[in-house]
């Protein structure tokens, strides 16, 4: 883009613009697709605020005959459904996982990028090797380890094994390699060591990158299912995804309550999307393209 | 953490007091610094990745039911591997994965690229469209499965798909309960497409914005028609690196498919008609039989398979070249 601004454009060339008809068609098509993409969200809200009779009525009802706000309190008052507990578990797991991953992976990434240690290459390859096999495949080996540590049905088992994310450490290393060295040199002259310049110079100047990694880690952690299912053997260690799945696969379901639970489960992430989308988009671009 | 180490690094708090002599960086100081920066992570990686994989490899040689410390009597050698490789259920799970990948990889690729092109081209409300298509990424597979199973593709009259078909006089279809025809593939493919399409669209949009405008100008001067011709000869070649990245990410994600299969399809029924490798392993090792030996063997076979595919693909497609950034 920058380079084109200094030069005249070829006569008659209009960037990225087709005929008027095709532009209108493009816009209309996108509007229709957007509606289709929003249908599932609409269904969650509609069903969450309906009665079972409205949902299962023989004729399709676009809106509930009367909005049932009471479904919300009913969900949290139902003793068979540990909704409050599982939300709390999910919040704790996601927040601690994000904080821990960020701390461990940024320090490791910085050390690998900046400290000229003799065996740094070998350490880096040991981390790279773990990227070849997705962590989901190794759920069984990890379970063997966690169960012998006695961390089954325990928040420690849900959180700690997921912190040592080779991929995030790899991303951090790549990022710190491109961090301007001059800033750190200045810190060195002022007498700061690696640790000091990392916390006082590098971290405060990397907020955008850290926010992107944090948001993507949080979303992944909140939505993860297989590992919490493996570890959450008793209902007081369920995350919200495991709780939802248990209702979904149980024999009798209360439809409005089920959808109310789904609405509550996605609410935190809808907020993340509304307020932090910039970082999320940045995080996706980073995690996707550098991997 | 090793923050207490004062010999290698002056405490940051002391830095501002007065001018202090510049510290000579000894080799020992560097090594120590590397230890406390990388050490904790490396230790965790060893404890939670390397040791478990080694332990699993050990267990896979034993008849280890319900135990992680089998005795020497239970040693069975490579029997677990032989049994897994000849086990019809395990093989069927690999076929399920293959079918799934063959459906989901091309569809996801084409849709996310198409969406990216359309969103990149629109002038009005571009940010809005981008957000709407990306929003499903906020949904977990569990939540999406819930909506797909209980509302959109509920096999009864009040399901949305059946309602719409009903307007055209078509009978109710039992989307998820039956293998003939296998309608469940439609349910599973649309679900994953809905969640991940926007994610890859973001990647493609980022790449599209990197394409220098002067390429299109040159094409115009050379008489290329806007539309298919410029797309085919300019846009697509310029997206090569991102296309490779997206194809690989979609495929690797498909290998790990578990959530929607677990939540949508009957697990314990007599007809487990579509189990992915992970679902099968879950049942073998953590289901009623708790067969950790055979489960471990299966997990290692699968891990090896993925590592080979990843390396192979990376070699062939030149993944990780500098242009990929």
Automatic annotation (TrEMBL), chain A:
Gene3D superfamilies (UniProt xref): MetI-like
Annotated ABC transmembrane type-1 domain residues: 87-277
A UniProt-annotated Pfam family: BPD_transp_1
Gene Ontology cellular-component terms listed: plasma membrane
Topology relative to the membrane: Multi-pass membrane protein
UniProt keyword terms in alphabetical order: Cell membrane, Membrane, Transmembrane, Transmembrane helix, Transport
Transmembrane portions of the chain: 24-45, 91-112, 124-146, 158-176, 209-230, 258-276
GO terms classed as biological process: transmembrane transport
Subcellular location: Cell membrane
Cross-referenced PANTHER family: ABC TRANSPORTER PERMEASE PROTEIN MG189-RELATED, ABC TRANSPORTER PERMEASE PROTEIN MG189-RELATED-RELATED
Entry similarity comment: Belongs to the binding-protein-dependent transport system permease family.
Protein name according to UniProt: ABC transporter permease subunit
Source organism (scientific name): Glycomyces albidus
From TrEMBL, chain B:
Annotated region (Disordered), positions in chain: 1-23
Occurrences of domain ABC transmembrane type-1 (ranges): 94-313
Membrane topology: Multi-pass membrane protein
PROSITE patterns: ABC_TM1
Pfam families referenced in this protein's UniProt entry, alphabetically: BPD_transp_1 (PF00528)
Gene3D superfamilies named among the record's database cross-references: MetI-like
Family: Belongs to the binding-protein-dependent transport system permease family.
The protein, known as: ABC transporter permease subunit
């Amino acid at each position: 883009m920058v380079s084109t601004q200094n030069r005249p454009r070829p006569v008659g060339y209009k960037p990225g613009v087709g005929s008027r008809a095709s532009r209108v068609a493009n816009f209309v098509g996108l509007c229709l697709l957007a509606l289709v993409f929003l249908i599932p969200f609409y269904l969650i809200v509609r069903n969450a605020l309906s009665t079972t009779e409205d949902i299962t009525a023989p004729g399709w009802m676009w809106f509930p005959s009367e909005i049932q706000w009471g479904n919300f309190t009913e969900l949290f008052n139902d003793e068979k459904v540990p909704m409050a507990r599982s939300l709390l578990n999910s919040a704790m797991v996601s927040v601690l996982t994000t904080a821990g991953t960020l701390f461990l992976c940024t320090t490791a990434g910085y050390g690998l990028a900046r400290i000229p240690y003799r065996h740094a290459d070998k350490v880096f390859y040991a981390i790279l090797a773990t990227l070849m096999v997705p962590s989901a495949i190794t759920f069984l080996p990890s379970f063997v380890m966690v169960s012998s540590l006695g961390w089954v049905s325990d928040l420690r088992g849900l959180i700690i094994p997921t912190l040592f994310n080779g991929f995030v450490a790899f991303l951090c290393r790549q990022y710190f390699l491109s961090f301007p060295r001059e800033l750190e040199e200045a810190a060195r002259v002022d007498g700061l060591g690696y640790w000091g310049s990392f916390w006082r110079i590098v971290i405060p100047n990397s907020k955008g990158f850290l926010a992107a990694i944090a948001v993507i880690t949080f979303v992944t952690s909140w939505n993860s299912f297989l590992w919490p299912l493996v570890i959450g053997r008793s209902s007081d260690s369920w995350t919200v995804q495991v709780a939802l799945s248990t209702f979904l696969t149980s024999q009798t379901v209360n439809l409005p309550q089920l959808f109310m639970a789904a609405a509550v489960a996605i609410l935190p992430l809808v907020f993340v999307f509304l307020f932090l989308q910039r970082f999320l988009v940045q995080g996706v671009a980073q995690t996707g393209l550098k991997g | 953490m090793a923050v207490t180490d004062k010999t290698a690094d002056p405490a940051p708090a002391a830095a501002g007091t007065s001018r202090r002599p510049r510290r000579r960086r000894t080799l020992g100081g560097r090594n120590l610094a590397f230890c406390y920066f990388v050490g904790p992570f490396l230790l965790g990686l060893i404890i939670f990745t390397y040791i478990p994989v080694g332990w699993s490899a050990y267990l896979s040689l034993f008849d280890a039911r319900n135990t992680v410390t089998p005795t020497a009597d239970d040693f069975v050698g490579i029997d677990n591997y032989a049994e897994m490789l000849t086990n019809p259920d395990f093989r069927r799970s690999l076929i399920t994965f293959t079918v799934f990948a063959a459906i989901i990889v091309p569809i996801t690729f084409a849709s996310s690229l198409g969406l990216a092109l359309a969103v990149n081209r629109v002038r009005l409300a571009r940010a809005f469209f981008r957000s709407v298509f990306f929003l499903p990424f906020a949904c977990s597979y569990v939540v999406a499965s819930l909506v797909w199973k209980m509302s959109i593709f509920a096999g009864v009259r009040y399901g949305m798909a059946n309602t719409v078909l009903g307007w055209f006089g078509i009978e109710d279809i039992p989307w998820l309960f039956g293998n003939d025809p296998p309608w469940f593939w439609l349910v599973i493919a649309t679900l994953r497409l809905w969640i991940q399409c926007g994610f890859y669209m973001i990647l493609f949009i980022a790449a599209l914005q990197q394409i220098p405008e002067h390429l299109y100008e040159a094409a115009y001067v050379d008489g290329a028609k806007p539309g298919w011709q410029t797309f085919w000869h300019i846009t697509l070649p310029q997206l090569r690196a991102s296309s490779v990245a997206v194809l690989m990410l979609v495929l690797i994600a498909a290998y790990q498919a578990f959530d929607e299969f677990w939540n949508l399809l009957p697990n314990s029924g007599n007809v487990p008609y579509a189990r992915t490798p992970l679902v099968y392993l879950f049942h073998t090792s953590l289901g009623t039989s708790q067969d950790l030996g055979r489960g471990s063997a299966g997990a290692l076979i699968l891990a090896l398979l993925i590592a080979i595919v990843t390396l192979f693909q990376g070699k062939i497609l030149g993944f990780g070249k500098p242009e990929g950034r």
